[in-house]
Write a structure and sequence with these properties.
The protein has helices at 30-34, 55-58, 66-72, 92-101; strands at residues 2-7, 12-19, 22-25, 37-39, 42-45, 48-50, 59-60, 63-65, 77-80, 85-88, 108-110, 116-118. The protein is an alpha+beta fold and 135 residues long.
């Protein structure tokens, strides 16, 4: 197992092993990584539990398949094994709400002059958000 960065609600580093798109972590690390815990009732966070019909799909020989856990929670994932990084997206309901409300989450980026700019700093003004990627 190697150190792996998980980018979710908050960035976390944990030990994990990668098999294709599978990222396997220790079961006890799930709370720190995603804030959920695998219990007999299913995946639980505080008093909310998501039933898991096929628990074996989440379990690996040496821990939990984080990709399968995220899928069970309705959260998309992207794994870059070379960079030892996994991104876990927002839950489906949050993504659908953002599309319905047409509200982008606030974020901060540095402009070409090195000045940090936030989306909220443009409140009340028209703005065009362009997202670009070379891949």
């Amino acid at each position: 197992m190697d150190t792996f960065t998980i980018l979710s609600d908050q960035p976390t580093e944990t030990t994990a092993s990668v098999r294709g798109d599978q990222v396997v972590i220790a079961a006890e690390a799930l709370v720190d990584v995603l804030g959920w815990e695998l219990k007999a009732e299913g995946l639980c966070q505080d008093d909310v539990c998501v039933p898991v019909a096929d628990r074996a799909r989440l379990e690996a020989a040496d821990g939990l398949d984080l990709t399968a856990v995220a899928d069970a929670l309705g959260r998309p994932t992207l794994v870059d094994a070379d960079a030892a990084t996994m991104v876990v997206g927002a839950p489906a309901a949050a993504r659908q709400g953002a599309l319905r409300d047409r509200q982008a989450p606030d974020f901060t980026l540095t402009d070409l002059d090195g000045v940090p700019r936030t989306l909220a700093g443009w409140t009340g003004k028209k703005r065009l958000l362009v997202a670009f990627s070379s891949w």
